[in-house]
Amino acid sequence: MAKKMQIRYTISFMILAVLLLLLFLWNVNSGSTSLTAGEIFGIILRKAGDETAVRIIWDIRLPRVLAVIILGGALSVSGFLLQTFFNNPIAGPFVLGISSGAKLVVSLVMIFLLSKGLTSGSGIMILAAFAGAMISMGFILLISNKVHRMSLLVICGIMIGYICSAITDFVVTFADDSNIVNLHNWSMGSFSGMSWENIRVMSVVALGALLLTFLMSKPISAYQLGEVYARNMGVNIRVFRILLILLSSILSACVTAFAGPISFVGIAVPHLVKNLLKTAKPILIIPACFLGGAVFCLFCDLIARVVFAPTELSISSVTAVFGAPVVIYMMIRQKTKTG
Question: Which residue ranges run through the membrane (predicted)?
C-alpha cells in the first residue's frame, strides 16, 4: 500500500511539473510574435535571436509568466493555510474577504500617492496590502469567537468582502480620472505590466513565506489531527495559529499588491491537489499546492489573453469560471457527507 501511494505521489508531481513546463512555453509563445520552442530556449538561456523577439520575451512575456507562477502558487498555499486554520475546505482569502481588505487599503494608498504625483513602489504596495489583509483577518477572527458554525463565518467573510469592495468603489468614484485609469486593470485582477523589479520583490516575499510554510509541515500535520493532539506533540497552539495567520496574510497580500484580487484559486486548487494525491499530508500538499496554483493560473492567464485578443479579460473572471464549479461541488459533497 505504501509503495502504491509512493508511485501515486511521484506520478502526480510529474504530471504537475510537465503541465507547468508546457504552459510556461505556451504562455511565453502566445502573442503577435510566434516562436519555436528552440528559439524560446535560445532567448531565455543565451539571449540569442532577433533583437525584437528578445526584447518581447525578456521585457514583457517572461516577467509576466514568472509572476503568474509565483503569485498563483502563493495564492494556492495561502488558501491551504486558511483551510487548515479554520478546518473548513471553503475557507480562502477571496471568500473570507481578506483579498478585498487588501484591495481597499492598496487602493487608498495608490490614490493618495497618485494625487500627490508620486508612484507607489513594490514594497509600499505589499505593506499596504498586508495591512488591509490583517484588518480583514482581525474582523474574521473576532467573528469566529462569536460564531461557531463555519457556514455563518464564511457568510460573514463574504459580507466583509462586499463592504470593502463597496468602500473601494466609493473612493474610486471620487478619484481623479487619471487615478481611475491606473486603478481599473489592477482592481479587476490582472498579471499585465509586470517588471523584473516586481519579480525580485515578490520572489523574496512570497518564496520566503513559502519556505517558512514548508518548514511548518510537521506542526501543521499535528494540528490537522486536532488541537489537543498538537498540544500533546509539543506544538505551541497560540504561536502556531499566529504564524498561520501571518503567513497566509503575507502570501495573499503579495498576490493582491501585484495582481489585484483573484478569486477561487485559494479554495479550488488545494481541493484538486488533495484529490490528485489522495492525501492531506502538508509535506506533500504544500509543494503540490504551489505547483497546482501555478498551473491553474498559467492556464487561466493564457485564456484571459488569447480567447478575445487583443482584448484581455480580467484574470478573476476566468478563475471564477473554472474555480467556482469546484467550490460548488465541494459544498454539495460536504453537505451529502454531513447529511
Answer: 62-82, 94-115, 121-143, 150-175, 195-215, 239-264, 284-304, 313-332
